[in-house]
Write a structure and sequence with these properties.
Number of helices: 6
Radius of gyration: 16 Å
CATH architecture: 3-Layer(aba) Sandwich
Distance between the termini: 19 Å
Order of helices and strands: EEEHEHHEHEEHEEEH
CATH class: Alpha Beta
CATH topology: Rossmann fold
Helix content: 25-40%
Shape: globular
Structural class: alpha/beta
Length: 239
């Protein structure tokens, strides 16, 4: 087994985006694929590492780019500035995630009928909005994702199975927002699950998260448990 990695450019209108992908070259046929949506930082080493781990599970890992080729935030202020246009304009966000969905389907290693999406923090919202757009996904997994429903976009049937992995004490996504999300998914007719991890806040999968005042702290137990849950969920929907 050898994990092959590379980058590929794709477009959203005239915006050049750069995805990172990984796959196991021991598999000779098209294999299920997993879109990976990054945090507010941008398409960085964190999601590239997740793409490699996805490839080790036998899938194609495809880390999309929301901001543009080579664009990364270097501070919370820069990250917030990069994320803000998409939070303020969910139609723009939907268009950008659909561009990533189109790009993964064009790769020769992708099984067109078996695609899932995951995301972390801001990326969790991106993955969920891809499902909310009616994309033909098998499933979506949000890791400590933002859950707020979009406005200003057409409501579509949610075809994907939904799994939200959430820190119960997340100050950025309060219990009332989790309840609203559950009600939204129920009204959409989705097959949904929410797993809450006690004594856990935002960013629990990221070892670099260490800002208790902001509410982002790594939690090794929740990280391990959530990744195991991802493996079980992907096996259910993709194998």
């Amino acid at each position: 087994m050898a994990i092959v990695t590379n980058t590929i450019n794709y477009l959203d209108g005239d915006v050049v985006l750069e995805a990172f992908f990984a796959f196991d070259d021991a598999i000779s046929t098209p294999r299920p694929a997993v879109l990976i949506h990054h945090t507010w930082v941008g398409r960085d080493g964190f999601v590239e590492g997740k793409a490699r781990k996805i490839a080790e599970l036998g899938y194609l890992g495809f880390a999309i780019d929301m901001y543009g080729k080579g664009i990364l935030g270097a501070s919370p202020e820069e990250n917030a500035k990069l994320m803000a246009p998409f939070m303020e304009n969910r139609a723009l966000l939907r268009k950008r995630v659909l561009a990533g969905f189109t790009a993964i389907k064009q790769l020769p290693w992708t099984d067109q009928n078996k695609i899932a999406a995951i995301g972390f923090c801001f990326g969790g919202l991106c993955a969920l909005d891809l499902a909310r757009a009616g994309a033909d996904l098998k499933g979506v997994i949000s890791f400590h994702g933002l859950l707020k429903a979009p406005t200003g976009v057409e409501a579509c049937a949610v075809k994907a199975k939904i799994l939200a992995l959430h820190g119960h004490d997340d100050p950025l996504v309060k219990p009332e927002q989790v309840l609203a999300f559950q009600q939204e998914m129920t009204a959409a007719g989705a097959d949904w699950q929410v797993h809450s991890y006690g004594h856990t806040v935002h960013g629990f999968t990221n070892p670099a998260a260490n800002n208790p005042q902001f509410g982002t702290v790594y939690n090794a137990d929740a990280d391990r448990r959530s990744w195991r849950t991802l493996g079980n969920f992907l096996e259910e929907i993709l194998v």
